[in-house]
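Each field is listed here:
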Amino acid sequence: MKQNIAIIMGGYSSEFEISLKSGNVVYESLDSNKYNVYRVHIFKEKWVYVDPENIEHPIDKNDFSTTVNSTKITFDCVFNAIHGTPGEDGYMQAYFELLGIPHTSCGMYQAALTFNKRDCLSVLKPYGIKTAESYYINLGDSIDEDAIINTVGLPCFVKANKAGSSFGITKVYKKNDLQAAIDHAFKEDDEIIIEEFLDGTEVSIGVIKYKGDVIVLPATEIVSDNDFFDYKAKYLGESQEITPARISDEMATKVNKVAKQVYEILKMEGFSRSEYIFKNGEPHLLEVNTVPGLTKESILPQQARAAGISLEDLFDNAIQEALK
């Protein structure tokens, strides 16, 4: 008997359009002989199952079911393709865990922790995970520009603490531009993190649970055509994403070891993709993503292909791991 799989996509953040693309790739890739696959759009104003004719059927939030032609449909597993809130920050994970519905992403605590860049980095530092120097500000705090620059130097990055896809991020070269960058970041979040600029090779590392084992996928080297790996570089082709990365065996060994260590320290499940920059030959962690992009052009699927894992196999394995 075929299992019912809901693919949740959309979300409440600036990343909803990317999430819809990711979710549709999952929808097209899963084996219809094995699963009954349902696209579920999650938006603030509505949760709906969108059928093949694009007719919307409301989701009953009491048990995450839907009714089509007087038949109630429940789900054996949920494939989480929501980038940002509420799919990547713990809310959906907690909801499904309360309902007892298996899902493909990490647990509630891990999602909430990794979505908060500064809390995640703070947890990992005692384990020896290297990170950039940083300075934190909450909305309403007084801004001491001299203290910021003394801590992180110039240039530096001003980032929204809880946002993805490079929304709310600015590279700042001059003290006079710092306040505008802070104002921009506060449009995305009420917490911001300001980090030193690390001048070195940037790589993205995918780590997944595959057939019961934690495996590190081949690294991707990020070479942005822009000043940094911003939204246009990530999604509009203004970058080179080179898989496998053009790094030495020694560098690959180091970053793979750290990436697997981070995954295991945090007790992760499902997919993760972390960004690192090499400084003085050592990988420095920037952030951890628990619902990375899943389009055919996205980094994690690129890495899976390099490891000999097809999209269908990658997504099917995620469901099977969740159902365990």
